[in-house]
Amino acid sequence: MTQAIAPAAGWRRVALLSVLHAACWTLAFPPFELWFLAFVSVGPLAVAAVAAARTRTLAVCVFVASMLGWMVLNRWVGAISGAGLPAIGAYLASGTVVAALCIRRIGRSTRFARVPLAALLPIAWLGVEHLRGHIVFDGYPWYLVGQPLIAWLPLAQVADLAGVLAVGILPLAVSGVVADAFLARGSVASRRAGILGTAAVAVFVVAYGVMQVRPISPTPDGPVIMAIQTDVPQSNKVAWSLEQQQRDFVRFRDATYAAAVDAAEAGIHVDLCVWPETMLPGPGFEAAALDTLEGAGYWPGRRFVLAARDLVDATGTPTLFGTSTVPAFVEGDEGLVAASRYNSVVLVEPEGPVVPPRYDKVFLTPFGETMPYIRAWPWLQDRMLAIGARGMQFNLDAGVAITRFEVGWTDAAGGARRLGVATPICFEDTVPELCRAMVWGDDGEKVAGLLVNASNDGWFGDSDGIRRLHNQVARFRSIENRVPLVRAVNTGISCTVDSSGRLVDRVPARESGILGPRAIELDDRVPIFATVGAWPGRAVLLGLVVMLLVPSRRPAAASPSEPDSGGA
Fold first, then answer.
1. Any idea which architecture 224-363+398-522 has in CATH?
2. Which secondary-structure segment (H or E) carries 344?
3. 143-146 long-range CB contacts below 8 Å, 24 or more apart?
């Protein structure tokens, strides 16, 4: 006999299960990194969702427990915005509640009584994750259920099929098996089918992963890359004084030059150097804007531009500088003001053009550089900043197109080669669809064989867990697109990642240092993700919506229930 709805659980049991879910979920991610808990973290939530006597009890218990867990994971926000920490905790907890309600709806439906939770849970959870990660508030693709599994590389390799969504299927199926067993939901045959199906998925994931993880090559065939890790605190980036800008630039310049000299003495030719996001002070390299500044006697004029060019000429190394770009200044009420301002990466080459090529960040960080939806009313955005994050300014414009750079090097056979390089800035290396568009051309050709991320994680203060999470999320872009990744990050973690998502080299967090120089290994594989992109996630979300709209059949007999008294 099939039982569609488990015996009702009172508020105490629902609360306990909600706390257990929140604890397992929180501990699976950095800074705790008990990644194996991802396999069972959603199980207690599924049991609570299906068994709760009252929907309101479920929603309240899940919200409170999840909000506390989310606030632990995002405690760094409190140092920037006192109001922001409970706000992000409440927002993310609301997503968990939505997922719980979806699980409840389809898990208790007599239409799906014969379908094991091992199949239903991935649809419900991943559908909501896609909504949060790609759609609502421009998307927040952090803290996805599959991300901790990169701790064992074979488990993460299915990301090249359908992104992180594919990695999340196995842990959710395992959670579904656990929940079905606990609830004794459905028939013995359906539960057995769930176990066998989950085992088959596990075998496929591990076998596929083992085959796809490439060994580290002793003779990498790509260019030699060096990155600078700076250690400018977030407080300086909010109010980076002119004096501090000069002192910091001199430190960065001297460290770069010394590293280049050391490499040359070791017989290593560096083909590309990278500076972190916004670490080159000044308004950028646009000649018209600099002429305006100097004509009006404004500091710094061309000082930093000339110093950067001198550094590149002295080292002989093309360098990607993270900087701000002001294409033009106009007269304002109190003097010159920027007509527009971009967060940019600029490639400066020895004896290169006066105005070097640049990429302007196209995806502004939600609530870090722009307020989704609210940005349509600047006065309201400014008011909310004054209340919740005094000192911050959302004065950046979004770029309009992706720019790819070219880097040349000499291979082991002495041949001259060129490589396309794409440069996601900061949060952009966590946005799967954007990085996919950077790597792959419209004709399906791999037009960028290397991702270089310039980032500023100084906002995270002393919370190294969120730095490790940023690194964890970014590594999936290498697997999805089968390209290596180099990250140059203010306050860390700067690292080199190969096309299997493996950390090859890194600089510890909150230290100044040099990453490399190291030759990177290129990869000519064309993964399925290059073609399908976000469509699997959209399909899962659509499937979830359809399942939620399907009415339940009238059961042959009422399921047993009990009052919401706090008992079992």
1. 4-Layer Sandwich (3.60)
2. strand 342-348
3. 143/29, 143/73, 143/92, 143/469, 144/168, 145/38, 145/41, 145/42, 145/171, 145/172, 146/38, 146/171
254, 328, 452, 549, 556 from 261: Cα distances, Å: 11, 37, 23, 66, 81
User: Cis peptide leading into 517, omega within 30 of 0?
Assistant: yes
With b meaning 16 or more CB within 10 Å and e meaning fewer, what string describes 173-199? Answer: bbbbbbbbebbebbeeebbebbbebbe
Per-residue pLDDT of the chain (568 residues; tens, 9 = 90+): 444 455 588 899 999 999 999 999 999 999 999 999 999 999 999 999 999 999 999 999 999 999 999 999 999 988 887 788 999 999 999 999 999 999 999 999 999 989 999 999 999 999 999 999 999 989 999 999 999 999 999 999 999 999 999 999 999 999 999 999 999 998 899 999 999 999 999 999 999 999 999 998 888 889 999 999 999 987 655 567 888 999 999 999 999 999 999 999 999 999 999 999 999 999 999 999 999 988 888 888 889 999 999 999 999 999 999 999 999 988 887 788 888 999 999 999 998 898 999 999 999 888 777 767 666 667 666 666 665 555 566 778 899 999 999 999 998 888 899 999 999 999 999 999 999 999 999 888 999 999 999 999 998 989 999 999 999 999 999 999 999 999 999 999 999 999 999 999 999 999 999 999 999 999 999 999 999 999 999 999 999 999 999 887 765 554 444 444 444 4
- Nearest residue to 519 (alpha-carbon basis) of 213, 217, 212, 153: 217
Q: Helix 11-28 crosses helix 43-51 at what angle (to 10 degrees)?
A: 160
Give the domain ranges of the chain.
11-214+530-549, 224-363+398-522, 370-395
Residue in this structure with the two tokens 């003495």, named with its chain if needed: 265
Strands 485-490 and 342-348: what pairing? unpaired
Q: How far apart are CA 89 and CA 74, in angstroms?
A: 8
